[in-house]
Amino acid sequence: MNKTLLVTGSSGLIGSEVCSYFAKELGYTVHGVDNNQRAVFFGAQGDTRWNQKRLEGSLKGYSHHELDIRDRAGVLALVRSLKPTAIVHTAAQPSHDRAAAIPFDDFDTNATGTLNFLEAARQACPEAPFVHMSTNKVYGDAPNRIALRELETRWDYADPQYAEGIPETFTIDQSTHSLFGASKLAGDVVAQEYGRYFNMPTCCLRGGCLTGPNHSGVELHGFLSYLVKCNLEGREYRVMGYKGKQVRDNIHSLDVARFMAAFVGAPRSGEVYNLGGGKANSTSIIEAFKLTESFTGKAQVHTYVEQNRIGDHICYYSDLRKMRNHFPSWDITQSLPDTIGQIVEAWRNRPHV
Ligand SMILES: NC(=O)c1ccc[n+]([C@@H]2O[C@H](COP(=O)([O-])OP(=O)(O)OC[C@H]3O[C@@H](n4cnc5c(N)ncnc54)[C@H](O)[C@@H]3O)[C@@H](O)[C@H]2O)c1
Question: Which of 198, 201, 276, 352 has its CA 20 to 30 A from that of 230?
């Protein structure tokens, strides 16, 4: 059977990794949808055309579709014509700070764009596994209510209930999400509903910090990629509140793609997974400075701003037990230091830097 994968946001960090992984490792014919909206959201620094060209030059049979996911008629027609055997939806307005300035673009992309693809899939290929890239911001700032302890270089959970991290059962309600978190939550719940109501094989992956060498990191999105870029260029990195001890768990895009492949191979309906690097791949910002410096030999230039980002997590790492339990052959393969090393190399070699 001809295996066809449709990937939205194909020129972005996750989308491009998924295109490569499914084409090279699994023999899929891959169709990517991207209109370089990241450059509209974040300016020239967010431009992803270089990555589109990289895919077109390196993947046999790769097709790029210049389509805005908000174009409902275009989305319905494309999915109807391709009838893909699997869909991975990663296109998004991905920044919670940016969303406040562009609420309509944010919601139309993250919520309505997701609905467009889900309904298109229901009409054309309801049996195709549908992976929706969600975010841990669906939990809003509720994780900040967990008792914390302050360590020398990071915050950590003081409550032993969260020793393994945040589980999928955590509340999504009655907290501050940012408009981005709210639009992503709408997409997340709709994707779950297509699984539960229509019995389609959908899942939502609630990402922690997703990272990797092919991110076009900017201040408003792509924490490690941007931090490394600042280090290499001697550019000032602004630490926003929480003493720089805020903790994020980081997962390499390759491990994200590998999990998506595991789900596509053995799909379930309406599932939700917290997809991050887990405690082992967690870091505070000031710890990330040190790790990066160990690769570049350059001191990180930074300033401290007292005011934290609205709704920002003080400490967040994902509980990976449900993922490991449902897909025992999957696990994290890329350590945090390896990942940072790869990001350093990538920025050094990227064409437009
Ligand atoms: N990177 C992270 O740390 C992180 C964390 C949690 C969740 N996520 C989620 O993972 C997904 C992928 O994130 P990423 O880091 O790869 O983002 P990215 O910005 O690198 O990639 C997204 C791609 O989607 C494209 N796109 C955006 N709007 C579009 C539109 N209207 N039509 C067509 N294409 C459009 C962009 O041009 C971009 O190339 C997103 O859903 C994001 O919310 C990311």
Answer: 276
Res. 226: pLDDT tops 90: yes
Q: Which tens digits make up the pLDDT trace of 169-178?
A: 999 999 999 9
Does residue 18's CB lie within 6 angstroms of at least one atom of ligand 1? no
Question: Residue 52: CB within 6 Å of ligand 1?
Answer: no
User: With the C-alpha atoms ordered 7, 10, 14, 18, is the resulting torsion angle positive or negative?
Assistant: positive
Protein residue with least CA distance to atom 25, ligand 1: 9
Q: What is the pLDDT of residues 113-138, one digit of tens each?
A: 999 999 999 999 999 999 999 999 99
Question: pTM for this structure?
Answer: 0.96
Taking the CA atoms of residue 168, residue 173, residue 176 and residue 178 in that order, the dihedral angle to the nearest 10 degrees is 70
Angle between helices 253-265 and 13-24 in degrees, nearest 10 = 60
Could you give the CA distance from residue 254 to residue 133 in angstroms, rounded to a whole number? Answer: 14
Task: Indicate if the pLDDT at residue 353 is higher than 70.
Answer: no
Strands of the chain (E only): list them: 4-8, 29-33, 63-65, 86-89, 130-135, 148-150, 155-157, 202-207, 209-211, 237-240, 247-252, 271-275, 282-284, 302-305
